[in-house]
């Protein structure tokens, strides 16, 4: 693995449900320590891209490379190893409902390490404290609020100290202050652990404050129409991207049938 | 005096030289709680001679969506006929809302199949659906088999506590319903037998009939059907809800097999508990037979007891237990399969539960027939 090999590389990725093409010809690179934002309007295929990245849904074409290793064409053992480098926070937290918070966080640790139970408990307590849920070890997911579920999901995603954290809609359903605390937590993880973070979101505040690299997925042309730092995209990106990032506040709203449709 | 409670609608040509302009005049109250006119009543006025439509709302006292939907429909008809619509005569608020409603053009979504299919088409669709489902079923079966192999070689991990929880839920908690059903079935069997055996004066053979019937066949079958409805549906609903909440995805992305962790304990628990419940069901059925024989048909308790012992041997129990184990496996397989196949909506969870019970009962019946024939041929 050389320094020039990107952390995540996506080449010519296309995804479809049956006949319906969701996104096609996606090409991008995520470097180590990036906070990479996948943005786009509702229904443009952000979550589908996430599912293709983390190994939940086989793309119809193209490849996803982790440090140069092609995930979808790898042997199951290699896929397992690559999956273990990922931590994923699902939109609703996806906590296992039959387990307590502590058991949720402990399960991946117990499954993939040979630590004694006491050490596992310590790690679990620390991870929960990190997301502000100290003392909630014995609660069940059904007893938590939406924000607590997300934070608990983050604690579980970080359980094995993954290289790459993939987060689906971190701030959806959270109040602005809770959303901001979650953003700060994500920034801190990058700063202190060097974790690469892929965030799927359409939350403008998050996109502009935490992202340092991004792609914009367009739901009409079914491909990416911008890439790079979100602030650059805001200043001199594609009109549609500027329109999106300013909540439609720019002067010239792009027409539905603009050049990207025929491109 | 103008009646403020009523709506008024009038259509007249524009005053002045614009012979091709139609003016629609609204008056009174246009609210949805009144019986407003259908927009269609105006459509025949929008003939070829009309090039423009204006509105006059000076006499309009009150309006809500009733007016808006009416004008919106008129505008659509005009657009279809190439007639220009001038909304400036409408109240400003109404005009703004109409403009917003027309800002995003109607979406051309892929045509959905609508209306009832013919009966031939329905049969065809159902058949295709069934054959499309087969590979998935085999796929799942294969995964479960691999998972069982991993368990036997000590590499599949689920928590022993999960197995015990399932066992408790499936076994002891099902005892009341299994008791009631088995007792009643035993009772029916005894009456049925008594009626026929009376003809040849061999009523003592009620004991044989009930014992062999319950232990060999009916105990397992009744338990299977009860557990299919009780536990098979529960499995499908549990796993289906986990699918909706992305909990299954969370297992997959961690590289933990959801089959090992969720399906295996459920299958093992059922394969263990259904035979035990079958055994229990057999005893309750025989108890009912004894009760009926002793109280109604004057057969001595001790007589009945010895006749039952004479009728039963180890083979009958082995047949009943083996059937129970197979039915348990079928129920667990159907419940878990439908749960894992579940879509991502509340409706899909309900469908999964229904489908699990139907599949389980179908598989139970098929395997019951096969096993009965095989055991008969083997002379067991």
Provide an overview of this structure.
The complex is a heterodimer of chains A (263) and B (380). The radius of gyration of chain A is 19 Å and the shape is globular. In chain A, the strands form two sheets. A six-stranded mixed sheet of chain A has the order 6-7-8-3-9-10, sandwiched between helices. In chain A, strands 2-1-4-5 form a four-stranded antiparallel sheet, covered by helices on one side. In chain A, 41% of the residues are buried. In chain A, helix 3 packs across helix 4 (117-130), helix 4 (117-130) crosses helix 5 and helix 8 packs across helix 9 (239-245). Chain A is an alpha/beta fold and 263 residues long. Chain A is 37% helix and 23% strand. The longest helix of chain B has 39 residues, at 206-244. Chain B contains twelve helices and four strands, in the order ββαβαβαααααααααα. The radius of gyration of chain B is 35 Å and the shape is elongated. Chain B is 68% helix and 8% strand. In chain B, helix 6 packs antiparallel against helix 7 (206-244). Chain B folds into two domains: 7-103, 2-Layer Sandwich (Transcription Regulator spoIIAA); 141-378, no CATH class. Chain B has a four-stranded mixed sheet with strand order 1-2-3-4, covered by helices on one side. By secondary structure, chain B is α/β, with parallel strands linked by helices. In chain B, strand 2, helix 1 (40-43) and strand 3 form a beta-alpha-beta unit. Chain B has helices spanning 40-43, 65-81, 92-103, 119-152, 160-170, 175-199, 206-244, 247-254, 258-295, 301-311, 314-340, 346-378; strands spanning 7-13, 21-30, 52-63, 84-86. Chain A binds chain B through residues 20, 51, 54-56, 79-80, 83-84, 86, 88, 90-92, 94-98, 107-108, 111, 156, 256, and chain B through 105, 110, 157, 162, 241-242, 245-247, 249-250, 252-256.
């Amino acid at each position: 693995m050389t320094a020039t090999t990107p952390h995540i590389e996506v080449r010519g990725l296309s995804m479809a449900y049956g006949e319906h093409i969701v996104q096609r010809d996606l090409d991008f690179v995520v470097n180590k320590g990036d906070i990479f934002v996948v943005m786009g309007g509702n229904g443009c295929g952000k979550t589908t891209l996430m599912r293709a990245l983390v190994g939940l849904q086989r793309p119809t074409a193209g490849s996803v490379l982790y440090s140069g290793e092609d995930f979808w064409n790898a042997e199951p053992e290699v896929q397992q190893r690559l999956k273990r480098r990922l931590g994923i926070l699902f939109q609703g937290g996806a906590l296992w409902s039959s387990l307590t918070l502590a058991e949720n966080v402990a399960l991946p640790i117990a499954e993939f390490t040979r630590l004694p139970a006491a050490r596992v408990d310590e790690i679990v307590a620390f991870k929960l404290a990190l997301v502000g849920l100290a003392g909630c070890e014995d609660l069940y997911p059904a007893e938590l609020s939406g924000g607590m579920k997300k934070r608990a999901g983050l604690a579980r995603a970080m359980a094995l100290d993954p290289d790459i954290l993939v987060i689906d809609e971190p701030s959806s359903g959270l109040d602005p202050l809770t959303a901001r605390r979650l953003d700060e937590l994500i920034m801190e993880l990058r700063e202190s652990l060097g974790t690469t973070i892929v965030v799927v979101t359409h939350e403008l505040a998050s996109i502009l404050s935490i992202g340092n690299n991004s792609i914009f997925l367009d739901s009409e042309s079914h491909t990416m129409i911008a890439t790079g730092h979100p602030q650059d995209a805001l200043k001199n990106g594609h009109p549609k991207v500027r329109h999106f990032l300013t909540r439609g506040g720019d002067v010239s709203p792009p027409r539905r049938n603009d050049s990207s449709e025929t491109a | 005096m103008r009646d403020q409670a009523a709506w008024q609608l009038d259509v007249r040509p524009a005053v002045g030289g614009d012979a091709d302009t139609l003016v629609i005049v609204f008056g009174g109250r246009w609210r949805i709680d009144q019986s407003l006119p259908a927009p269609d009543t105006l459509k025949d006025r929008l003939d070829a001679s009309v090039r423009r439509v204006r509105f006059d709302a000076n006499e309009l006292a009150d309006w809500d969506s009733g007016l808006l939907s009416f004008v919106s429909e008129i505008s659509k008809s005009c657009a279809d006929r190439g007639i220009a619509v001038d909304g400036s005569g409408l109240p400003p608020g109404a005009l703004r809302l109409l403009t917003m409603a027309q800002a995003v053009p109607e979406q051309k979504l892929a045509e959905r199949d609508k209306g009832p299919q013919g009966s031939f088409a329905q049969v065809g669709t159902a058949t295709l659906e069934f054959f499309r489902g087969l590979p998935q079923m085999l796929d799942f079966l294969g995964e479960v088999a691999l998972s069982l192999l991993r368990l036997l070689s000590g590499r599949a991990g689920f928590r022993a506590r999960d197995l015990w929880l399932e066992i408790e839920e499936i076994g002891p908690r099902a005892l009341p319903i299994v008791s009631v059903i088995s007792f009643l079935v035993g009772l029916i069997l005894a009456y049925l037998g008594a009626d026929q055996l009376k003809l040849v004066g061999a009523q003592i053979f009620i004991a044989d009939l009930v014992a062999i019937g319950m232990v060999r066949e009916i105990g397992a079958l009744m338990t299977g059907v009860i557990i299919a409805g009780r536990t098979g549906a529960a499995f499908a609903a549990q796993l289906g809800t986990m699918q909706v909440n992305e909990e299954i995805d969370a297992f997959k992305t961690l590289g933990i097999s959801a089959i090992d962790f969720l399906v295996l304990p459920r299958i093992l628990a059922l394969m263990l508990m259904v035979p035990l419940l079958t055994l229990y069901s057999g005893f309750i059925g025989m108890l009912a037979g004894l009760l009926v024989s002793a109280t109604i048909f004057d057969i001595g308790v001790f007589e009945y007891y010895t006749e039952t012992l004479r009728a039963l041997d180890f083979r009958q129990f082995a047949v009943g237990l083996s059937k129970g184990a197979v039915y348990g496996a079928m129920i667990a397989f159907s419940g878990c399969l439908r749960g894992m196949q579940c879509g991502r909506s509340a409706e899909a969870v309900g469908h999964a539960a229904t489908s699990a019970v139907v599949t389980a009962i179908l598989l139970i019946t098929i395997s019951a027939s096969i096993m009965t024939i095989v055991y008969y041929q083997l002379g067991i």
